[in-house]
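Reference record:
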Amino acid sequence: MRTIAIINQKGGCGKTTTAINLAGVFARADLRTLLVDLDPQSHCAAGLAIPEQRIDVQIGDAMLAGPEKAIDWTRLLWRVGRNLDLAPSTVRLAGIEAPRGGLTTAERAERRLGDVLVRLADQYDVCLVDCAPSIGLLTFNALLAATEVLIPVETAFFALQGSTKQVNTIKSIGRKLGAAPPFRLLPTMHDPSSTLAGDVLEELRRRFGDKVSPVVIRLDTRLREAASFGQPVIEYAPESTGAQDYQALGRWLLDNAPAGGPALEEAAPEPAGPVSVVPGAGDGLLSPRTGEPIAPENPAALPPPTPADAAASARSRADEVQHLASRLAGRSGAAVTLVEADHGAAQTATLQKALSGVLGVRTTSQGVLFVQPAAIGTTIAVAGDFNGWSADTHPMRLNPSLGVFERTIPLPPGRHQYRIVVDGRWIPDPYNPIEAINPFGGANSVVVVPEADQLRP
């Protein structure tokens, strides 16, 4: 059974939309299709008109059952259309990753999804796994069960930075688990009329080459309408742009199955042992090799790549920054100011340092410093749980000498969630990789403020 995991630790990039609509395309092509919802938000069920309160058995129950126990497939699997079944999730799925949730202490904890799919393999031709916007034990299960990975990437300004981190995260986890399935990047939510979106798409293809799908999913309001009616767009509006794009994607995937099986990038596995949740550390994970905690939300904390990969990645990132900076020079003076503010240095390594060292969020003895590039918009503010999610309380101020917006906000020690409000549009902080899912299914950025004696000046 061909198994495609749809993964991106950034929310709002079109994972569930892709999972539902690609499943609909495969089913229409007479392929026996299984859609697995591995996201506790249960959006696949909502997008296919299945009320969560009617779900009494979900995919987490099957994973906890183990290969030796019987599973009532009639209660787990929902027939949502011809050739299309759904193995749904509920909010209870989030609990199985907790220290006492059952999965972390189970034998073969990171392979439980694969064990479930093996028992279903003779019933389906293709399986799509919709993953949560985070990296944890559930995502590890998806990676080990998959024959390939599809990474939806919105063609927006900060997509390149996020996609590079996502690819590096998948490779690092692959090395930890012993093998990484081949991956493709799927440009989504693309606005063909936007010059900037076109530039980002071109840069994405330059950076990742043939790893980027030649099919692009364009913006189409019919995709949202279809979800609200509980149907794949190919059923709801077969003549729409969204239906055409996902049909083209389905044909391309069927014609271009990865060669060599599910482990094209083999790596030496660490000594045997489950990847387990650190008690009391939220989503922190323990390395089976060292027993030390790693932070899956932060790709830098994952096992480092090989020296050759690291060198190639550094060259690519440096080229990316230089190339994108030159592209923006013609229409974003502020962005050029930011790059040239670093003493006029021309080396790409210095450019990369300028971008990564200035932007984002960090704690200081004066408070939490928020910094965003001037090119991001005209009016910028910080809204979070510390100001009642007000877009007016903490506006950011333009620093023309550096070409950035900045604001220092005194915050008490603890974990705080926030979003950046750009010209009235609420977005996660594109320069902060640590995120948490909010009650509306989107992502909030997270900053952790240490005790006062641990703050840097």
